[in-house]
Specification:
It is a single chain. The chain is mainly alpha-helical. The chain has three helices and no strands.
């Protein structure tokens, strides 16, 4: 690893696949808004599990 320049090749390889606009958008939200989004995502995931016949 090239720590002298602060570059980790693994991180650099994955950076090209990260949508940074989504990260920035999320960071503009309040903690409460982020928590609400997380709870909505969890409800959605639970619905998908039930639709697929999996029990939690």
């Amino acid at each position: 690893m090239d720590h002298s320049r602060g570059l980790d090749p693994v991180i650099e390889a994955y950076k090209k696949d990260v949508d940074r606009t989504l990260i920035r958008k999320n960071l503009k939200l309040s903690y409460e808004e982020r928590l609400q989004n997380l709870m909505q995502l969890q409800k959605f995931a639970n619905g998908l599990q039930k639709a697929g016949g999996r029990k939690q």
